[in-house]
Automatic annotation (TrEMBL):
UniProt KW keywords: Isomerase, Isoprene biosynthesis, Magnesium, Manganese, Metal-binding, NADP, Oxidoreductase
UniProt cross-references to SUPFAM superfamilies, sorted A to Z: 1-deoxy-D-xylulose-5-phosphate reductoisomerase, C-terminal domain (SSF69055), Glyceraldehyde-3-phosphate dehydrogenase-like, C-terminal domain (SSF55347), NAD(P)-binding Rossmann-fold domains (SSF51735)
Gene Ontology molecular function terms on file: 1-deoxy-D-xylulose-5-phosphate reductoisomerase activity; isomerase activity; manganese ion binding; NADPH binding
Organism: endosymbiont of Bathymodiolus septemdierum str. Myojin knoll
Binding positions (1-deoxy-D-xylulose 5-phosphate): 122, 148-149, 172, 195, 208, 213-214, 217
Cofactor(s) needed for function: Mg(2+); Mn(2+)
Residues binding NADPH, per UniProt: 10-13, 38, 121, 123, 201
Enzyme Commission number(s): 1.1.1.267
Domain of life from the UniProt record: Bacteria
Alphabetical list of InterPro entries matching this protein: DXP_reductoisomerase, DXP_reductoisomerase_C, DXP_reductoisomerase_N, DXPR_C, DXPR_C_sf, NAD(P)-bd_dom_sf
Record-annotated 1-deoxy-D-xylulose 5-phosphate reductoisomerase C-terminal domain positions: 143-225
Name of this chain's protein: 1-deoxy-D-xylulose 5-phosphate reductoisomerase
Catalytic activity: 2-C-methyl-D-erythritol 4-phosphate + NADP(+) = 1-deoxy-D-xylulose 5-phosphate + NADPH + H(+)
């Protein structure tokens, strides 16, 4: 029996993780759950999964929740409490599924405690990739990607890295793959969140529409697979059936395919190196043909180019990119800026901050704070 902590349990990845847990009650048990403010959904999850500990972001929602759930469930609040459940002796696996930079510290805690870290929160690697990978190595943690592309590459690389030439991340192109650049100005948040293949939270849905999600994934892949930007490629694949590929020097290419459903990725992370039923239907290729592939349009999807540039710059540039993106996306979702202003705000922020190396968690946090302040000033310019 493996005890699991799910950070960000009330979100889309949280839902999928809990549905896999429910399928395998003989193998997995919920130890702890966390959410930001959604105590009503957390109440339902507590009734169904009976965790030992629950963490909410603030005291008020924690108090609200404790009034309505079983008194045996301990309710904590705040970021220190997230670190506690991520590193707790009684947890074996940690699903890191908080959205954004808010998920970084608890991912790092799980790595430092030597847990199996099932990493959906790609921002942890974008902000603090060197520190994260060092913590994984030093403490014998197991880092298993929970992103369809990285899981695909992780699965393909089970046959080894000898002769590896490049990895190729597939990108669906989101809802605007075929929309002309000029028509993107008037896009609404709901249009941007209407992903054709994947059901996800609103922030990552906007990131998919701008292709910043793919940019963050390129950085994530750089750290996970220890490859430079030159060996990481992106290809458009609107059907989201081929989840990614690895290319070898002998002309061989290995790909992983499946229906676009995160339960496959999550169940693999939970059962690795074995495989268990995830509840996802088997792929029927005859129902998905033709499978199409195109090179990405980096002029239209400027965010992808900005992410490649930030990776090549290194140091704090990736954290700056992430912070500015979070600010810009939040303002777009609140109808304060246009869709096409997202990359402009990120570029302005990147240009305003000196490129320095990142050596500690404190420097990550300081840079994140500075980048958010500058990005907010850039937002005022457009709002
Ligand atoms: N969804 C996917 O298919 C997918 C695929 C690959 C990777 N990912 C990555 O997985 C992560 C989660 O994505 P998602 O789509 O599941 O997001 P989501 O549906 O928006 O859920 C986010 C979760 O994080 C919690 N949360 C939000 N802000 C927080 C804060 N400041 N402090 C603590 N907890 C906070 C939310 O709690 P409340 O409910 O209380 O707000 C919720 O439980 C992201 O990093 C995303 O890039 C997602």
């Amino acid at each position: 029996m493996k005890n699991i902590t799910i950070l960000g349990a009330t979100g889309s990845i949280g839902d999928s993780t809990l549905s896999v847990v429910a399928l395998h009650a003989d193998k997995f048990s919920v130890f702890a759950l966390s959410a930001n403010t959604n105590w009503q959904k957390m109440q339902t999850l507590c009734e169904k999964f009976q965790p030992k500990i629950v963490v909410m972001s603030d005291q008020a929602t924690a108090q609200q929740l404790s009034k309505v759930i079983d008194k045996n469930i301990q309710v904590l609040h705040g970021s220190e409490a997230l670190n506690t459940i991520a590193a707790h002796d009684d947890t074996d696996f940690v699903m890191a599924a908080i959205v954004g930079a808010a998920g970084m510290a608890s991912s790092l805690s799980a790595a430092k405690a030597g847990k199996r870290l099932m990493l959906a929160n790609k921002e942890s690697l974008v902000l603090a990739g060197d520190l994260m990978m060092q913590a994984v190595r030093d403490n014998g943690a197991e880092l298993i990607p929970v992103d369809s592309e990285h899981s695909a590459i992780f699965q393909c690389l089970q046959s080894g890295k000898s002769g590896l030439n490049k990895i190729q991340l597939t990108a669906s192109g989101g809802p605007f793959l075929h929309t002309p650049l000029n028509d993107l100005k008037s896009i609404t948040p709901d249009e941007a969140c209407a992903h054709p293949n994947w059901s996800m939270g609103r922030k990552i849905s906007v990131d998919s529409a701008t292709m910043m999600n793919k940019g963050l994934e390129v950085i994530e892949a750089h750290y996970l697979f220890n490859l430079p930007a030159e060996n990481i490629d992106v290809i458009m694949h609107p059907q989201s059936i081929v989840h990614s590929s690895v290319y070898y020097n002998d002309g061989s290419t290995l790909s992983q395919l499946g229906n676009p459903d995160m339960r496959t990725v999550i169940s693999y992370a939970m059962s690795y190196p074995d495989r268990v039923d995830s509840g996802v239907a088997a792929l029927d290729l005859t129902q998905n043909s033709p499978l199409e592939f195109y090179p990405p349009d980096l002029e239209k999807f400027k965010c992808l180019q900005l992410a490649f540039d930030a990776l090549k710059q290194g140091g704090n540039a990736m954290g700056t990119l992430n912070a500015a993106n979070e600010i810009a996306v939040a303002h777009f979702l609140n109808n304060k800026i246009d869709f096409l202003e997202i990359p402009n705000i990120i570029e302005k922020t990147l240009n305003a901050i000196e490129n320095i190396s990142i050596t500690s968690l404190e420097s990550v946090i300081a840079n994140d704070k500075l980048a958010r302040k500058i990005a907010l000033e850039a937002v005022q310019h457009y709002a």
